[in-house]
Amino acid sequence: MDRIKTGGHVLMIRHAHAPGTGDPDGFTIGDCTTQRNLDDQGRAQARRIGTWLRAGGVMSARVYSSQWCRSRETAQLIGLGPVTDLAALNSFFNKPEAAESALADLRAFLARQPPDGELIVLVTHFVNISGIAGIGVLSGEGVVLALTGDGGYEVVGRLRFD
Q1: Is 60 exposed, middle or buried (0-12, 13-18, 19+ CB in 10 A)?
Q2: For residue 84, pLDDT beyond 80
Q3: Gyration radius of the chain's alpha carbons
Q4: What's residue 1's pLDDT?
Q5: What secondary structure does DSSP assign to 69-115, as a single string?
Q6: 75 C-beta neighbours (distance < 10 Å), count
Q7: Per-residue pLDDT tens over the stretch 11-55
Q8: What are phi and psi for residue 20, nearest 5 degrees?
């Protein structure tokens, strides 16, 4: 926890609990009625993540989210600042052929971040976190990356917010 209060860290969080797997055929980004969404348990979980982070001294961050409704809602309910959509965080679960390109875009985003800047929170999906960090996480869990200053990063921790 202390690490994320210092500069140059990224907290990747898998969206909070949303029952099911993947998305229905024909889902549309921007139309939450066509997607798998947070339930009441997921909304409460997202609020607890924000409470846990603030209790640990994290009062604000640069917050980015995938364009999926469950990720955006998680990011908003965490409540650490305005949420910016970042397409590089979009799930490729149903399109494994898009994985390489999506992960390259996300690595390029990370490489552009200052190694001493404020905490960056990325709310995304299992496949994105696994692809970047090599770690599988449950809904509402996180992985901490330290930006190395040479355009790279290293995994320095895993967070469970309970």
Answers
A1: middle
A2: yes
A3: 15
A4: 63
A5: HHHHHHHHHHTSS-EEE-GGGS--TT-GGGHHHHHHHHHHHHHTS-T
A6: 30
A7: 999 999 999 988 888 889 989 999 999 999 999 999 999 999 999
A8: 105, -170
Rounded to two decimals, what is the model's pTM?
0.96
Q: What's the pLDDT tens digit per position in 131-160?
A: 999 999 999 999 999 999 899 999 999 999
- The residue type of 6 is T
The rounded distance, in Å, linking the Cα atoms of 22 and 25 is 9
- Structure tokens, 11: 């907290």
| Two tokens, residue 34 | 């066509």
Q: Give all strands of the β-sheet with 120-124 in edge-to-edge order.
A: 83-85, 62-65, 120-124, 9-14, 141-147, 153-160
* Annotated domain spans of the chain: 2-17+36-160
Query: Which CATH code, of 3.40.710.10, 3.30.450.20, 3.40.47.10, 3.40.50.1240, is assigned to 2-17+36-160?
Result: 3.40.50.1240
Tokens of 97: 């052929």
**DSSP state, 99?**
H
